[in-house]
Amino acid sequence: MVKPPPPPPPRSNEPGEGRFQRSDPRWSRLLLWLAMFAVLALFFLPSISPDNSGDQITFDDVLVQVQDSKVAELEINNLTGEIDGFYKATAAELAEDPEARGEPFNSKGPLELSDADRSILASDPELELTFDTPQSSIWASLLPLLLPIGLLIGFFWWMQRRAQGQMGGLMSIGRSKAKTYTTERPGTTFEDVAGYAGVKQEITEVVEFLKQPDKYAEIGARIPKGMLLVGPPGTGKTLIARAVAGEAGVPFLSVSGSDFMEMFVGVGASRVRDLFDSARKLGKAIIFIDEIDSIGRKRGAGMGGGHDEREQTLNQMLSEMDGFETTEGIVMMAATNRPDILDPALLRPGRFDRQVVVPLPELEDRQAILRVHVKGKRTAPDVDLNVVARGTPGMSGADLANLVNEAALFAVRAGDSMIRGSHFESARDRILMGQKRESTALSDVEKEAIAYHEAGHAVCAVVLPAADPLHKVTIIPSGMALGVTMQLPEAERHIYRQDYIEDSLVVRMGGRVAEQLVFGQVSTGANDDLVRNTELARKMVREWGMSDKVGPMAWGSQGEVFMGDQMVSTKEYSDQMAHVIDAEVSQILREAEQRCYDVLTTHRYGLDLVARALLERETIAGDEVSRLLGVAQTTNNPDAAPANAAELTEPNAS
To answer: What is the pLDDT of residues 74-104, one digit of tens each?
Structure first.
């Protein structure tokens, strides 16, 4: 058996080691400007700085001082007329140093001295008179010529560098954008992934194969070439992939499906080739493609026949995966929440052999996820994560992380130093029901209608045996709703029985029926309830075989149309069957409405008590609704009920 070559040593991330790191271009530009400034200063500073220091006097004063024999030296510049001189030293200075000179002075004279001036300067025999004609520097002469030439050369050099950068980016457009993670880089491990024991078990097999391939090869076992993580959004598929990168001990190449697509034709296929070539050079490696459905969709689907560039990218990926050998030590991983739209060739054995389902977390998984997210946060002793987990069915890992963060925000708003159980309750209501809109102004008539509407839902939820237990009911506007009735299941449900679905239809009918029973007419408040009930009843008939007339027949889901795939499909059933389906859906909804009428008529006094409590307190718990219904049944006196609904708004009504 030929063993693969060992992987190259990981590159060091420490400064000064590994390959040369390019300096910051901002420092390069700064150094260039400093060099130019130094060159200019070298030329111009000598010409603008004085040669010596001294008193500045006029030329006439110089002549007077010469006539008085007070000047020892004079140096006259024939080009500029500048005069530098020294006074004669005093007797005390000469006594200390016979060669001492007096104080210096400066002056400015005419470029051409007159005969009278020359005679005055020559009148003092002790005066050391010097006429200087300085020679100009060759660099100062060439500077006016060199400066424009230098600017032109710098401009063309900058243009060349810019063109090379653009050409380099254009030539590298076909290279893969995958990020490589090595064992030297800290990352996520399986300990950071709470719950999902079954998923981690399947992933661990891949990690062990890459660490100890001989153990599997001895008995002829072959590890799957590809593993597809499938699950709803927010369940932690990418987090699990990062954990594999931290546990595998081999290079991990991560890339998103959208990174393969570009505006140029053929770029996607080129990047796929470069990605797999990079993986082969590493020896053992894991390639992870997030959101693979962006390039792995069914070929030829849609009204236009598909997308040529995406299909070419997919064809190249299929070819690269099919060319792998089992001894190469390269494993493909991908994540998607739309496995139904993937191309069948991508899912066949030999490519993505195994699909690992990452479902929504169960109760125990939610507890573990909550424990991970509350680490590092101040939580009060009254916070019971078991209670929080029971009250969050159907939430993903991302939802639970958001729940903990929202609870912390509620604690900050309340001015508490710790996160309490009430903050988790408020955070859950915020996520499930929406932000409370306490500023919404409702009239008394609207409040009364909303109170009876929500009371109808609440009474049906408490009375019907198969319905989910009532958690709370409120008439405070939240999100897009003017009132909310919240039910929480007692345990996780994986299948739904027909009696549960039928009771759910009755509970949603409760608001509309309560309005019609009390006020004699309905309102627009039941719009969402009717839409959801109609959709649920249609699924009962078309998909779940819960209709006696239609029988055990199913025609699939009427969900989203993928790229026009279902627009050109043939009709699944006849027009006669369509009429039967519509009639059965209508019959189911009519029966649910009649059952709701019977329930609310029987518990009319309890309905009034719940509505009155909502008008007084705006929010009541499910236990309080049960207590009010118990009081109504115990009383069982129709005369005790108020004569009309208006009496419920009185604050002292009994």
So the answer is: 888 877 778 888 888 777 777 777 777 778 8
The Cα–Cα gap between 297 and 301 comes to 8
Find, among 507, 518, 516, the residue nearest to 460 by Cα: 507
Task: Decide which of 3.90.79.10, 1.10.3290.10, 3.40.50.300, 3.30.390.50 is the CATH code for 179-357.
Answer: 3.40.50.300
Q: Whats the size of the chain, residue-wise?
A: 654
Closest CA to 295 of 316, 326, 264: 316
322 vs 332: CA distance, rounded Å: 11
- Residues with catalytic function: 454
56 phi and psi angles, rounded to 5 deg: -100, 115
Secondary structure (DSSP) of 361-404:
--HHHHHHHHHHHTTTS-B-TT--HHHHHHT-TT--HHHHHHHH
Residues 520, 531: contact at Cβ < 8 Å? no
Residue of 434, 444, 522 lying closest to 486 (CA atoms): 434
- DSSP H helices in 57-114: 59-67, 91-96
Helix or strand run (H / E) with residue 472: strand 470-474
- State the Cα–Cα distance between residues 494 and 320, nearest whole angstrom: 39
DSSP 255: E
| Tokens linked to 191 | 């300990």
pTM: 0.61
Query: Helix crossing, 575-602 with 498-519: angle to 10°?
Result: 60
> In CATH, what class is 363-433?
mainly alpha
Q: C-alpha angle with apex 460: 459 to 462, nearest 5 degrees?
A: 65
Q: What is the pLDDT of residues 25-73, one digit of tens each?
A: 566 667 767 777 776 666 555 554 545 556 788 888 888 888 888 888 8
Report the candidate in 184, 179, 283 with the shortest Cα–Cα distance to residue 241. Answer: 179
- Per CATH, the number for 444-557+572-649 is 1.20.58.760
CA 245/CA 188 separation, integer angstroms: 7
Pick from 218, 215, 282, 295: nearest CA to 255? 295
Q: Does residue 179 carry a pLDDT above 60?
A: no
Residue 524 tokens, joined: 């627009």
User: Do 593 and 509 touch, CB atoms closer than 8 A?
Assistant: yes
